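Repro:
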Amino acid sequence: MSTEPSYPTGLGTSDAKQIRLLGLDLSQDLMGKVGFGELAFWLVTQQRPTPSQVRVFETVLVALADHGFTPTAIAARLTYLSAPDSIQGALAAGLLGGGSRFLGVTEDCGRYLAEALAGHDGELPTDDAGWDALALTAVQKTRSERKFVPGLGHPVHKEQDPRTPVLMAVAAEEGLKGPHLRLFEAIGRVHPQVLGRTLPLNGAGVCGAALADLGLPIDLLRGFALLARAAGLLGQIAEEHRQGTAMSMYLNIDRNAVYEPPAE
């Protein structure tokens, strides 16, 4: 009996002549035949997605790729300014900024909706009135706990996040507008009567709902947001390389810093 340790994996392996991925020959079966979004979905689930699932999934990736000079982009640019020999460091700096305020909302919203659905006693609603009632219960509970509903509100898009209706429409067109998206949509309708004001359903939240409806693991939803943002950060670094702005950012802050000695 062998005493050598074993390390099982169903993902990739290689030998002198071949690379195998997901049980297939990488060069013969996948390269030039499978898109990156499709492969990313496949790697996580170990099930090949349908064309409809790929379309919704890639719509999410596009929605989350880049939003301009966000803190994650600024972190990447400033790191590249400091260490232009380390693109991996600049990318990592931007990705490390993906947390509860930026990018993390995707996972937070997906988890919130999943927990609300799991806590529902009985059959899921079949009409808007039923979804509204379920959403109202969830929002009221969150308000009573003095917490925020993830996915509500946006610092720039005060009336409507332009990504939200597009992703809702794509999911509906592909027959993948499931319970998470329907509950999120209902939250958008009922929250004003609880909060006393109307907030938009933001893009990060609707992306979390869409990913959850695709059956992707809730605990990994932030990872998909980071996957999308990696492309955006690489674009930010490329632009910084062509026409740098990070030095101006640094100098503007440095020259306008106000020194205040510690109080005795």
